[in-house]
Amino acid sequence: MKDNIKLLSTTSPKKWxxxxxxxxxxxxxxxxxNLQDWGFDPIVAADGEKALKVLLRKNIPLVLLDWMMPGxxxxxxxxxxxxxxxxxxxxxxxxxxxxxxKIQDISAGFAAGVDDYITKPFHPLExxxxxxxxxxxxxxxRQLLNYQKKLExxxxxxxxxxVKTRRQILAELxxxxxxxxxxxxxxxxxLVDIDHFKKINDSYGHPAGDKVLKKVANLLKKNIRRYDRxxxxxxxxxxxxxxxxxxxxVARIGQRLCQAIAxxxxxxxxxxxxxxxxSGGATSSEAFTRASPxxxxxxxxxxxxxxxxxxxxxIIIFPQSQKPRAGVSND
Amino acid sequence: MTKKQPSxxxxxxxxxxxxxxxxxxxxxxxxxxxxxxxxxxxxxxxxKTAWQARNFKxxxxxxxxxxxxxxxxxxxxxxxxxxxxxxxxQQKDEKKIEVLLPQLEKEFEKVWHYLQxxxxx
Lengths: 331, 121
Hints:
Number of domains of chain B: 1
CATH architecture of the largest domain in chain A: 2-Layer Sandwich
Number of helices of chain A: 10
CATH topology of chain B: Four Helix Bundle (Hemerythrin (Met), subunit A)
Radius of gyration of chain B: 14 Å
Distance between the termini of chain A: 82 Å
Order of helices and strands of chain B: HHHHH
CATH class of the largest domain in chain A: Alpha Beta
Low-confidence stretches of chain A: 1-11, 322-331
Shape of chain A: elongated
Order of helices and strands of chain A: EHEHEHEHEHHEHHEEHEEEHEE
Radius of gyration of chain A: 29 Å
Mean pLDDT of chain A: 90
Low-confidence stretches of chain B: 1-7
CATH superfamily of chain B: HPT domain
CATH topology of the largest domain in chain A: Alpha-Beta Plaits
Number of strands of chain A: 13
Oligomer: heterodimer
CATH superfamily of the largest domain in chain A: Reverse transcriptase/Diguanylate cyclase domain
Helix content of chain A: 40-55%
């Protein structure tokens, strides 16, 4: 009863990997061949420990577990797999292969976390049917994970500017400072806002103001490094986290951003072309023995205030060194 | 196929059933029979050693394994003896094990002779 119909997943005919944990060679070979014929990608392991090693390395959504194996037994392995699933936030579909059909053994298997069982010797089509059910569950799980990722992205992204939300960027600043402390690195921070933004909104309307914000955010995104992070701190305030940046580096990047924005031409309706400038305050954890997010932000805030006082269109670095070093300006 | 019968009336090899399990693939069936032979020849001395050491757990596990292999290939008489040996190991029944081990060895030779004769190998 050769069945050559390839098993199709819900999306495209891809080869789903299946782990076969079976120590007896004939059974192992038979199951592997069946799986291959049905379009799966079988990966065999001859005992529980080997099976666990494979699962730690590769992402395998379907597992066929023999009940009695040397070393780690089927149910023990199932428990380990469930623990791993919890940590990795994913789901593994487990089918227990048992020679027994006593109800206590089966219920013990389910208590250990298996999803289904099949008794040996089994007819190949029975296995195939159970695998198909498993595939449905796995596809559903993948869908859910996808949605979860999308939701997470939505929740942490400012919908207008496509930068991180305030809450998210502050959380990342916290995490980045912790990492930097562990790795003895610095973290740079730049806080900017658009000069005379209120006037832009009043003169040209809020849609125009939104467009200006978007263009500015986009240009900033283009001009930071791949691993820098940008978020919306307030209405027209943006905050940029710069990992591994000391004061000098922050100053350099700040100047580049300032100049880039000053050159930007924003086309509004009615053929109006706007140009804007940024004011900013910047610092680095380099300057502090104990840098907290609050200290860095407060420092940037003070520097931003200074930038405004000094005529705008500039990013000022605090603390300023003893040597007369003027804030970075756009000359 | 799994009905309980006295072992001397069980078929040595249920070809129909084995063909169904292997999807009619003759080459694959031969490959599996060869694999079985290899496995049996490796496990039989291990069984004997386990018996000498009165390691009942090992006897049980080894015969359980062989039972599975026999069942997969519809080698029914061998499957039956393996099952009995597994039970005997579980129950630490020395008298039974003493009888079943040589029986197992003899049955294997009988079955393999038959398979060779019928050109299944």
